[in-house]
Design brief:
single chain; about 160 residues; 5-stranded antiparallel beta sheet; 5 strands; globular
Length: about 160
């Protein structure tokens, strides 16, 4: 009986050990090197990650990464969104973010941002509900930084 139990454990351990270097290489390769993609991915992660108890910090993070019409709309709707998120005790965490540059004007790049996140609220009884969404993020360079100026299909 010891051999039967040991064999599956050994297979699991060997697979885990063999997979660790591969997983590290995959994560490193997934990080974009393009500053435009980095800015879009950072925006997507920050936009999808919030907690009802620290919502003001969330608003500040998103506003610091945005400009123009999106910045103004987000700032104007912050109080209504805060009330809704606080009433439902909502929390969201971005688990992964993928960014892909869309053909466009290099001065105003468009990035397709896909976010896998977990959303928790009173409606989910505090249990994580996985969600996947894609948005198109438009960036403008302001004072040497790429900032989000428009978002289509926001989360």
């Amino acid at each position: 009986m010891f051999r039967i139990t040991l064999r599956p454990i050994m297979i699991t351990v060997l697979c885990a050990v063999a997979g660790m270097p591969f997983a590290e290489g995959t994560a490193a390769a997934a990080t974009p090197a393009d500053p435009v993609q980095l800015a879009a991915c950072d925006f997507g992660r920050q936009f999808a990650t919030f907690d009802w108890s620290g919502y003001d910090d969330y608003v500040t993070r998103v506003l610091n990464l945005s400009t123009g019409p999106f910045h103004d709309q987000f700032a104007a709707s912050a109080n209504d969104r805060r009330a809704q998120v606080t009433a439902t005790h909502s929390r969201s965490e971005a688990n992964s973010v993928e960014c892909r540059t869309e053909p466009a004007d290099p001065a105003h790049p468009q990035i397709s941002v896909t976010v896998d996140r977990s959303l928790r609220s009173d409606a989910t009884l505090g249990l994580p509900k996985p969600q996947k969404s894609t948005m198109r993020v438009y960036l403008d360079q302001v004072a040497g930084h790429w900032l989000t100026s428009r978002v289509d299909n926001p989360i």
